[in-house]
Amino acid sequence: MHRWAAIFLLVAGTACATARPSVAEIAVEDLDGRRSTLASLRGHAALLYLFTTSCDVCLADMTKLRALDDRYRGSGVRIVGVALDPDGARIVRPFAENLALPFPIVVAGAELRRGASSLGPIAAVPRVIVVDATGRVQEDLSGVVTFDRLAAALERARAAGPRRER
Question: What is the 8-class DSSP label of residue 105?
Fold first, then answer.
């Protein structure tokens, strides 16, 4: 009887360990149209802020993201805005320039916008994905999230693995 319980726990533990998706293969474009993936974040804990330029809550959150960037600059943490606007850089560039954001803004590739990436469907914005230095999702938050909760999530992600300086 105990043998079956041990096998169940081993299988359940393996499923839990592999349940956290990686963001490494998610395609994005910078505001100049250069394509890349989020694998460039490897080695850094990161907060990915998924938003649209028409989202009022998202616009208000940019102040929190700026403060987080100020707090974690030089500590191996990256803040990245990921715009889901289907018109891409044409819409996103003026938004980012107007706000003079200190952190990078990228445009989500079609796979992410369609909900076909490792993150699954994007049901609502804002959505915050916090990843550890290996690119594995540590937290997936939707809606309004306080500065303190975002900072705590980043601290947990930093503690989850090795990091390199910015």
Answer: E
Cβ(48)–Cβ(138) below 8 Å = no
pLDDT tens, position by position, 60-77: 999 999 999 999 999 989
Q: What's the CA gap between 56 and 43, in Å, rounded?
A: 32
- β-bridge pairing 27-29 and 35-37: antiparallel
- Residues 43-72 as b or e (16 or more Cβ within 10 Å = b): bbbbbbbbbbbebeebeebbebbbebbeeb
- pLDDT (average), residues 138-145: 94
Q: Which domains does the chain have, with CATH numbers?
A: 21-159 (3.40.30.10)
Question: Distance between CA 52 and CA 40 in Å, rounded?
Answer: 22
**Does the pLDDT of residue 12 top 80, yes or no?**
no
